[in-house]
Amino acid sequence: MIIWLIVAAAIGGLTRFTVEYFLPPVGTQAFPRATLIVNVVGTFLLGIFLAAPHDVRLVVGSGFCGALTTFSGVSLQLHRRFSAGDRSAGVRYLGSTLVLGLAAAAVGMALGTHLF
C-alpha cells in the first residue's frame, strides 16, 4: 500500500510540475492559470474518489491529489498579486480558485457516487 501511495504522489507532483512548466505566468501581472488548473482538477478528482473504496481513496486522494494540488502555490500567487499592489487581480484569483474548486468538488462527488 505504501509503495502505491509513493508512486501516486510522485505522479501527482510530476503532473503539477509539468503543467506549471508548460503554462508559466508571462509577466508580473499574468493570471496564474497553471496553479488554478491543477487545483481545480485535483479537487474534481478528489470529489470523485471520495466515494471509492478506502485503499483507492487513500492512494488517489492523499497520494496523487495531495501532491497535485498546492495550497502553498495559491498562497504564493496571492502574495505576489497583493505585494505588487494589484488587489483586484488577487481578489479575482482567490474568487476563481474558491468558486471553481468548490464547483469541481461538487461535480466530482456527484460523479463519484455513480461510479463507485
* Head-to-tail CA distance between termini: 20 Å
* Continuous helix count: 5
Beta-strand content bin: under 5%
**Which structural category fits the helices and strands?**
mainly alpha
The portion of residues assigned to helices is over 70%
SSE succession: HHHHH
3D architecture notes:
- The protein is mainly alpha-helical and 116 residues long.
- It is 82% helix and 0% strand.
- It has 5 helices and no strands.
- The longest helix has 29 residues, at 87-115.
- The chain is globular and about 45 Å long.
Quick take:
The protein is mostly helical and 116 residues long. The chain has helices at 2-22, 33-49, 54-68, 71-83, 87-115. Helix content is 82%, strand content 0%.
Which terms would index this structure?
single chain; mainly alpha; 82% helix; globular; 116 residues
Layout: helices, strands, pairs:
Elements: H1 2-22, H2 33-49, H3 54-68, H4 71-83, H5 87-115
